Amino acid sequence: MNSVQGLLAASVISIQNSCFVYPACQNCFSRLVLDSRRFSCLKCGCTGEAKDASYRYRLSLKIADTNDLFDITVFGSCLDPFFGVTAENLQRYIQDFNQLSGETNTESSTRALVQAVETCFIGKRFIFGV
């Protein structure tokens, strides 16, 4: 699953979603189901305490090369250099910011993060391993 079949030089046209970090199963990387105290993985059955959940990057992009448009999703730690922190730390910073600012509606912090990601990626050219 990690083998690169080819390289594609393309420009980012748009960000397809606003959720860049997700709680991920440490065994199979699937999205975890979280409640206030527990997490569970529907794919492999892994369970644990919510506070121990790991987080992973997931960035869905629309990209274009000289001929075609593509929808791609970039996962994992290869995004650490772009965000400047691990997904785990970014999630912690977001939670701490919302808690310290007294935000009950996390929409403003989400909007600021989306805007920052759009500024960093849209219009930029990257080489994608596909």
TrEMBL record:
Pfam families registered for this protein in UniProt: Rep_fac-A_C
Source organism, top-level taxon: Eukaryota
Single GO biological process annotation from the record: negative regulation of intrinsic apoptotic signaling pathway in response to DNA damage
Record-annotated Replication factor A C-terminal domain positions: 9-95
GO terms for cellular component: cytoplasm; nucleus
Name of the protein this chain belongs to: DDIAS protein
